[in-house]
Each structure stands twice: as structure tokens, then as C-alpha cells.
Design brief:
alpha/beta, seven-stranded parallel sheet, 7 strands, globular, binds nicotinamide-adenine-dinucleotide
Length: 258
Amino acid sequence: MPVSEGSLAGRTAVVTGGSRGLGYAMAEALGRNGADLMLVDVLESVTDAAARLDAELPGAVAAQRCDVTEADQVAQVFARTADELGTATILVNAAGIAWNEPAIDVTAERFRTVLDVNVTGTFLPCQSFARAVVAAGLTGSVVNVASMSGMVVNLPQPQAAYNASKAAVSMLTASLAVEWLPLGIRVNAIAPGYFASDMTKSVSTTDPDMVDEWMRRTPAGRMGRPDELGPLVTYLCGDESAFVVGQTIVIDGGYTIV
Ligand SMILES: NC(=O)c1ccc[n+]([C@@H]2O[C@H](COP(=O)([O-])OP(=O)(O)OC[C@H]3O[C@@H](n4cnc5c(N)ncnc54)[C@H](O)[C@@H]3O)[C@@H](O)[C@H]2O)c1
């Protein structure tokens, strides 16, 4: 997978879920490859995260607090990005939530919330991004963060809503890819296995046996490091992947092949 250094120079990337974890690491990789960044997150700490990246990266880094399920807030992100950094031509959707709850118990409200954040919260940034790219007469590239949980029922945690939401992200990705390729917008997704982040740390501190089980089922025998997503997301965002369209690329230490 060739990725030329500085291949994203002169481009602006919006990264949702950019405060921490996989979103932060992917933003850092895009920034190292020359992109200016707009970090987006519902957490206030997105401002500190942007300041940290701004200190280490060559390009500009800004932050915007936003709930990705709110269409008006999302539209505002892309308007502000265009004003301050130039129209975004890269979008990485990493905002997401995972709640482990038995399907027999989960309330309708909590089920809907997982779907809303993970699916609507992926769609709305895609839509605002596409509108901005088309209005500016540009081309663009989107990478959505799906999951191996959209392809296999990874055990032992009960997470039907999460699994369904991530399968939806993969199908949304393929659907938008077909609709938007004629507009010059490529849409792909990545499907990570277990990666070390706040999302998984909450489990490793409360239930180390569960993490042992995850590792037993992962041929690589370890969690992924968030920085290991950098080359893949940089490749998918850049022109070198021009013929990769609507795919969900698995990066899971082999979990889904056994
Ligand atoms: N860590 C893993 O093992 C793993 C595996 C597969 C997929 N993923 C996916 O990767 C993405 C990033 O996960 P992570 O592990 O870094 O988790 P994380 O909890 O560390 O990061 C998720 C980020 O999304 C933000 N967010 C949540 N709801 C939001 C909303 N409504 N609006 C804006 N921001 C919101 C959170 O504040 C947080 O900063 C998620 O979509 C997750 O489902 C993670």
C-alpha cells in the first residue's frame, strides 16, 4: 500500500470523534501527511486535543464541539471549516459509542441512541461534506469507521445494537459510494478489530477476563495500536487509492478469519 509522504498537503480533513482514541490517531496521521485538520467531538476536550496536535504538526489544526447526531451543528462544522481552513475534501467519521447490553434487556431508547450516534452520526457529516465539496466544485474522499462487529458477532460481550449499527455503516458506505462517485466523492470504510482506546479500556479495567478472551480469539494475540490505522486511513483518503470504492477494509489482527 504505497503512501507518498506529504501526499495530503494542501487538503483539509474533518475528523469526527477526534478528541481521543482512533479518531485522534487517524487525525494525527493525516496531519503528518500534510493535511490541515478540523477535529470534531462532543467532548470539550476536543480543544485540548487540537492544541496538542497543533503543536506537533506542520499544518493548521482547529477544533469544533459538535454532536454528530444534530444536523445543524454538523452543517456548522463544514461552514466554519470552509471559512477558516478551506473546504474540507477529506472526512473521517470516527465518532461512535459501544454499549454492552443483553438484547433481552436493552431499552428502546438506548437501542436507538446507539443507532443514532453510529449511523445517523456517520450519515450527517457525510451529507454536509458532500454538499460542501460539490458546491465548491471539488472532489473528495470519505473514510467511515465501521467495525469487524458489523461482519461477525464478536464474543463474549452482548452488543446487538452496536453490531447492527456497524453493519449499517458498511452498507451506508457502499450506498453513498455508488451515489457519489459520479460527483467525484469516494467513500470507503475501515473495520477495526480490537484496538486500545478509551472505548476498550473501560472493559479492560472492569473485566480483564473479557480482554483475555478477545486476545485468545485474535491470531495476532494483541490489541491493535491506534497509530497502526494511520497508513491505511492515509491511503484511503489520498489519490493513490482512486480505484478503491465503497469498500470496508478489515484491520483486525486476523480476528475475522478464524
Ligand atoms: N477501539 C476499538 O477496538 C474499536 C474497534 C472497532 C471500531 N471502533 C470504532 O472506532 C471509533 C472510535 O472509537 P474509539 O475506540 O476511539 O472510542 P473512543 O470512545 O475513545 O472515541 C470515540 C469518540 O467519539 C466521540 N463521540 C461519541 N458520541 C459522539 C457524538 N454524538 N458526537 C460527537 N462525538 C461523539 C467521543 O466523545 C469520543 O471522543 C468508533 O466509531 C468505534 O465504534 C473501535
